[in-house]
Amino acid sequence: MVGLSLGLVVAAVVALCLGPVQLKVPLDPLQRKVLLDLRLPRVILAVMVGAALAVTGVLFQGLFRNPLADPYVLGTSSGAALGATIAVLSNASLHLGGLSARPLCAFAGAILATALVYGLGRMGNRSAPTIMLLAGIAVSAFFSALTSLLLYFRQEEMAKIVFWMMGGFSYARWAEVKMILPYLLVAFLLSRSFARQLNLLLLGEDKAHQLGLEVAVFQRRVVFTASILVAAAVSVSGSIGFIGMVAPHLVRLFIGPDHRYLIPASALAGGLLLLVADSLARTVLSPVELPVGVLTSLIGGPFFLYLLKKSRRALH
Amino acid sequence: MLVPSIPILSVERLSFCYGEQPILADLNFQVPTGSFTGIIGPNGSGKTTLLKCLNKTLTPTDGRVVFCDQDLRGIRVKTLARMMGVVPQQWAADFAFTVREVVMMGRFPYLHALSGEQAADWEIGRRAMEMTKTWELADRPITQLSGGERQRVLIAQALAQTPRLLLLDEPTSHLDVSQTLEICALMAELIRKQGLTIIAVFHDLNLAGRYCDNLLLLKAGRIYAQGSPEKVLTVENVEAVFGVKAVVRDEPNTGKPHIFFFMKNRLKSKTAF
Amino acid sequence: MLSRSRIRIRSGQLSGMLVLLLALAVTTSAYPLQLTDQFGRTLSLNKPPERIISGSPGNTEILFALGLADRIVGVTDWCDYPSAVENKPRIGNIAPLNLERVISLRPDLVLACNLNGKDPVENLSTLGIPTFALNPVSFAALAEAIQLVGQLTATETAAQQLVTELEAALAALAPEEKSSGRKPKVLIAIGSDLSDLWTAGTGTFLDEAVTLLGWENIGGGLGFSWGQINLEYILAENPELILTEMNPAIFEQDPFFRELTAVRGNQVFQINVDTFSRPGPRLIEALADLALLREQVQK
């Protein structure tokens, strides 16, 4: 954990120094503005989103007892995409606290999608998480289809939306940081308090119940918290894959399955990974910016396969 | 052994259906405090379902369960976990917790949200592991344990809950002969020394007959017979419920009934013994 | 009064001249012709096409400019200029091209473009429909495209006229004296929002025009034709000029953009980006506007 924290700080400092504008001490006003108003919020946002995604990954992997669960299984990212599409296509000139319509509508869309999945998950008497997973698939497909339909009729905006959906931090400013900070703080605190219960849940729903856990109530709380995390993350940065799934696994390899350590460590690891990825994305082909989501999937995919091979036993 | 007059568990008109399918029908029985009650019956007679109804994993479709003088429906899950411990029959261990961590999860119902485990909690956990001879395994990941070792860990976890009632579903199914006897002896000791009440599902009638002082014989979701082993383990009952011929003799050491089974057409002579 | 013998001679001369004219007409007629289109495919036509379908707004505008309005039997849903195009039947999207709809209009020439995609173009040819593809990614290619269309449709004079105008407009862009030293840097800011800026790189008309003006496009030479660039890069390059379709006041209100030399020096100019993205005759007007703009800049 200490290692991770140190690594994060180092990475942050390095990231702050990278970019087309050269920073020379003492800083002139433009350089200072670039450092404080462009790079710093971007670094902070990348870390926050990375942490949010990683923690959500931990929560879902514990909730669904499935190591392949990622933050988007409940349809959050397709809801956000639909919201963002509607915002862009309707040319809404909504401006709240420095935020344009897109992140606001993306957030609304994400929450709507997850609420739908959650509502569907309360029906039936089968295990709620299973129903929710299935509902998530259905809702995801539906919202994606709606988005594609909208884009088909307005093809000239397609590039914009697709680019946004690939994930990126080009528009990271303090306004976005302020927007998601309260949600993330609350959600992180809540997640920490779930640690013991998640441990219990790993033993099986019946066993957790026998040990005194109100399973259904707890599951709802987890879904609620996780949804806030993902909605906040996706609304400012598009859908960035693999961090949410891989960071918990990486951490589990070293720390084990105990959520009391897994949750904070994953947050650090996720933040670090995404920060590195974003820094690469904006410097590798500068001044062209690669979408971060593409980078994380490009690197994440093969890396994940390598992890699987190397540690088949350790996952158990 | 003194048997206090109030039964720890009282079941009235208990019924349970999976949709249209009746599994349990109109069960009425009482479990005396401090007893070792065994639930026996053929496969599919509803033993496991009964256990699940008793620990609120399943909600009965009719009837009620009174535990420690309270209706089970009114007891909150966490409170119930302090009074009732459950040892299930199977348990898939996918995640590499250590034995100690698993056993300490039994203290969950007692922990406060903000504080962690106290010294007293660790002590209870240690005692539970020592009683089940799993202390030596404390730091091993459960994924590396054998079935029998895992079962003992589960018993330790249930004991860590310091319950008044222990429910076990075929607790000796993965244990070898000596382990089986050890666990059964442990259970008897827990009753004697700590005033625990134990309800266990057995598939081995002789084991049930030897250790239990109260038996419930189930057939097709109904109670066919209940009472002391001598009363329940009769030739007629065995034949009626299990469909096999039996010969009952007393055990040499304990004087408890011991059943010898035979296929219906194989019994040569009742007086062979 | 002419004598009979004279009339006979005159009619003989007349018929002789007619035969000569006919012979001339036959030898100078272009049809049947074979032309290579800008996809590298060859097309043979036996006679001037009478039913032409246009596969892109740019092509539509070219056809109208060459006076072929009444020979057009189908245009895409995106074709909106000139206003006379409103009465024309529609064939749907530029991509994917609705082949059945195209075929149902019984064209004898489909003027396609690179936006339709190579496969639909091939499919149309395989189905026996004469298809000619234009791919004007530069002004030179556009000039060639116009002339090819002129040859295809026997409107060479009009085509040549258009090309001459285009070349004149291009020539007007060149700076009067060869400027020594550094070229002024320009940012081409496309989009409706400063938080969502796109820029034109190599392979676009805007980039080419701006370079002809003697300016340096900071988004050029980066390897893409349309793309987004890092805000920091813009700040680091500090362009002296900005061409945009947005209101210049937006730049002055943004905390980052207002520091740029271009914004401080009031060198933010509005242009119509849409006309620059259509390879057609309206580019000539757009270039003329640019030339006027350059004069504003020099002041």
Task: Output the structural class of chain B.
Answer: alpha/beta
Radius of gyration of chain C: 25 Å
* Cα end-to-end separation of chain C: 75 Å
> What is the tally of beta strands of chain B?
12
Q: Which sequence of strands runs across the widest sheet of chain C?
A: 4-3-5-6
In whole angstroms, how far apart are the ends of chain B? 34 Å
Please tally the helical runs of chain C, counting DSSP H or I stretches of 4 or more residues.
12
The value of Rg of chain B in angstroms is 19 Å
Topology of chain C as a string of helices (H) and strands (E): HEEEHEHEHEHHEEHEEHEHHEHH
Structure classification of chain C: alpha/beta
Mean pLDDT of chain B equals 87
User: What's the shape of chain C?
Assistant: elongated
In which range does the helix fraction of chain C lie?
Answer: 40-55%
Biggest interface, chains and residues, is: A-B, 21 and 32 residues
Q: At CATH's second level, what is the architecture of chain B?
A: 3-Layer(aba) Sandwich
What is the quaternary state of this protein? heterotrimer
Helix content of chain B: 25-40%
